[in-house]
Amino acid sequence: MTTLSPQTATHLADASVLAVETQGLDRVYRRGQQKVHALDNVDLTIGAGQFVAIKGRSGSGKTTLLNCISGLDQPTAGVVRVFGDEIGAWSEGRRTTWRREQVGFIFQSLGLLPVLSAYENVELVLRLNGVGASERHKATLEALELVGLTKWNDHRPYELSGGQQQRVAIARALAGSPRLLIADEPTGNLDSKTAHSVLALFRAIVRERNATMLMATHDTLADDYVDRIINLSDGRIVGE
Ligand code: ADP
Ligand code: MG
């Protein structure tokens, strides 16, 4: 673990801007003649700097909610504002650009490229975002150090344990210093000891980087690490 230099700890909490705000959020999927209300009138506010768990059974709408908040999907109706921007109303292209700059993703299926080392996997995202060579190098090393993988920089995914691979994926999500971190069932494939250490790492990252993090999970392990738990059932918020 490392303490970040002031230049990289860019997202000092601004209490006046909500990280996430949804109003009357609906997402309806059509399956043939049937309509599936994946999200049904969701009103939600999340302050900047919070670590929030979205919980609920499989099919309750967790992934759909994360996708609407991260700009991967567009609501059928309602408002989604992220750091004050009404991204739900934007075109796909505009959302894609915004997402690259503002959002770090961590999925259960890690999506690491097997032929690239840990270092190269992390650096690739910055390369795609057009970050210059020296800044890229610095940010990559810093992200890998933050997740405790410095010694493993040169290793390829198959030479790393499941927990270490998850750390590479976390470093990759962090490298661009996103304000918003989105994790969809990030501990789903991990044993409980590794899951605990990944959750502790998320918590530390949210604090150190002043990031806001939303994590879909049905893992009760997460409860002790988050600031807030939002429960979903059939696309509705059913309590905190
Ligand atoms: P969770 O992540 O909590 O398991 P999802 O958000 O993936 O739930 O799904 C919520 C509901 O929306 C489910 O009934 C699911 O089958 C449906 N759904 C999700 N994505 C699609 C899609 N692309 N097309 C049709 N139905 C979908
Ligand atoms: Mg899901």
Q: How does this model look, in words?
A:
There is one protein chain. With 240 residues, the protein is an alpha/beta fold. Helices cover 31% and strands 27% of the residues. It has helices spanning 62-69, 92-102, 118-128, 133-146, 162-174, 192-209, and strands at residues 18-31, 34-47, 51-55, 77-82, 103-107, 180-184, 212-217, 228-233, 236-239. Mean pLDDT is 90; it is low at 1-11. Magnesium ion (MG) binds at residues 62-63, 184, 216.
Q: What is the secondary structure topology, with strand pairs?
A:
Blueprint: E1 18-31, E2 34-47, E3 51-55, H1 62-69, E4 77-82, H2 92-102, E5 103-107, H3 118-128, H4 133-146, H5 162-174, E6 180-184, H6 192-209, E7 212-217, E8 228-233, E9 236-239
Parallel strand pairs: 3-7, 3-8, 5-6, 6-7
Antiparallel strand pairs: 1-2, 1-4, 8-9
Helix pairs in contact: 3-4, 3-5, 4-5
Adenosine-5'-diphosphate binds next to β1, β2 and α1.
